[in-house]
Amino acid sequence: MRAGRIAAWTVLGLAVLVTVFPFYWMVRTALTDAQHLFSDNFSLWPRHFTWANFKRVLGLSTLAEAQAAGGSGASLDFLLYLRNSVVYTAVVVAVQTLSCAMAAYALARLRFRGREALFSAFVAALMVPPIFTLLPNFALVRNLGLLNTFAGLVAPILLMTPFTVFFLRQFFLSLPREVEEAAVIDGAGVWSVFWRVALPMSRGPLITIAVINGVYAWKDYLWPLLVGQDEGSRVLTVALGVFLQQSPNARPDWTGLMAGSTLSVIPVLLLLLVFGKRLANSLNFTGIK
């Protein structure tokens, strides 16, 4: 028994190490002087520590200072792309969470013909790889003239995703019917029961799914790459890729890229630090692993 527990903790420790180490190495590279990146490659802490990579990514140093610090001369308007990512993520999270909550409540509580078939269609949609819908969505957005706009960016996922509907439906099914029936006796309609009873009682799962959708939207790369090439709609993940492409192939600007990547991860880490415990509790409640 004790040997089994030791083995389990060992495997868990290795899994944590494998998961966390790439993030640690990203931060370490961002804090290393670019001139000594490859010569200072065998220590866990950078021997040539510097903040210069963060300064040039944030636009706090001139071109001459950036090149003197080992930069390739590539520029990155970090604050503009950060704003684009925040707008894109906030719109997707707010609209998608609300519309999915309405759909999930209807599938959990309302009685109408075809309800089970409709829910089966949502479950089947969970198994469709997103890459299969990429080209049809791109053709539709292009024909609508929405390329390089925020409307085109959010269009495919704005209203709902099958996972969000499935997740919230599982919770709505667990709500005590007596509370909703008492509201109906007091004269509340379906809409009032949803707004005044079901939603307030679902605050925890709603925050959880909002965090999950927010992380997904924040790190999304392929769809924004296809649709949001213009600077006014370019999000941070795409901008970091463009930043790397601007540096010479023979000498990529790894330290600048890692500094930008580190800064881009901070909002997501803050979200997980604030809502991490609630997220784990809700996932355990729904039985999703």
From TrEMBL:
Keyword Hydrolase in record: no
Source domain of life: Bacteria
Pfam family, one: BPD_transp_1
Membrane disposition: Multi-pass membrane protein
Example of a GO cellular component annotation carried by this entry: plasma membrane
Keywords: Cell membrane, Membrane, Transmembrane, Transmembrane helix, Transport
Biological processes annotated in GO: transmembrane transport
SUPFAM superfamilies, per the entry: MetI-like (SSF161098)
Chain ranges passing through the membrane: 7-27, 86-107, 119-140, 146-168, 201-218, 254-275
Source species of the chain: Nonomuraea gerenzanensis
Name the UniProt record assigns to this protein: N-Acetyl-D-glucosamine ABC transport system, permease protein 2
Family the entry assigns: Belongs to the binding-protein-dependent transport system permease family.
Subcellular location(s) of the protein: Cell membrane
Cited InterPro entries: MetI-like, MetI-like_sf
Sequence ranges assigned to domain ABC transmembrane type-1 in this UniProt record: 82-275
Predominant location category: membrane
